[in-house]
Predict the structure.
Amino acid sequence: MNKKLKMGMVGGGIGSFIGDVHRKAAGIDGMISLVCGAFSSSEEKSITSAEAIGISKNRAYGSFEQMIKEEAKLPEDERMDFVAIVTPNHMHFPPAKMALEHGFHVICDKPMTLTLEEAVELEKIIAASGKVFALTHNYTGYPMVKQAKAMIAKGDLGTIRKINVQYLQGWLSTALEKTDHKQAAWRVDPKRSGIGGALGDIGTHAENLVEYITGTQITELAADLSAFGEGRTLDDDGNVLLRFANGAKGIMTFSQIATGEENNLGVKIYGTKGSIEWYQENPNELVVRWLDQPKQVFTPGGNGGYPESSDYVRIPAGHPEGYLEGFATIYRSFAKELLLTKEKQPSAQHDFPTAKDGVRGMKFIYAAVESSQNNARWIKM
């Protein structure tokens, strides 16, 4: 198909950080066009946002319900093909459910829903609908993350025994939520964020990343969550012990009050033959240390990269790719799968996070909160 897929957006009006990221990422590979949106719960603000980003005010809606109903009435070659949901957590489930039930595919920001119950229900709705659903755990889209995954899957590192993952930020070291900071305000609000604070916001990224790279799942955890910010009821810091299905043991630490940190997501994975180390703030280097050989450094498109990694590199070796490209890789894989569905072709099992990953993330949040409330008792996932 030569025509671009048509995207509708829920949330992401002017001033939204993540909405702008999604719009830019969706356009990188030239497969998707944004054609409509319910960019705000205010129709006036939605129209203003639409006009600012070049969308006709006739395709700007005052609610996701209105958008889905009106778009469904349009001819197939005019209406949106899928919905991108870029709202706070409490507004993930309602538009996703309605879009799927009206025949639209969905790509959604993480965590998948506000509650575990919603996540389980949404997974069933997705299965019944036959539509494509993707979750934007964007760090799985980095080429060196895919290289690490491929090396472990091929047995290069031997049996995986120890896993360390960290996600450290410092932007909530002060009470930003008490200022006019919308991003901080909803993240510390249980009604909009859910039962996890930093746990749901960045802890789920760490959980997803280690399960994705290693190919094994967390089976039990013991969590110690803290709310250091005055007046906060949701965690802004956490430390978690992990047990994995293959027998490996792990440690996770995440924080949004780690003063001076920016976006320090990193993972170290140790096997019987070697280990890997990768950091999001230096995403073009995957360091591999061997039991009996000198260490290696892999780079996107560089020497020795596996096809599972190089297939996702867009530019020549030595040119940095990062955050936007990670998102774009998920959008591209999602779009390829959606095109197969439109052409009534069998799934190619393109590599992107799905509802299964979303439910895993919600189970992780709930298990960690239960553990912390019980003095870091071990809880099964």
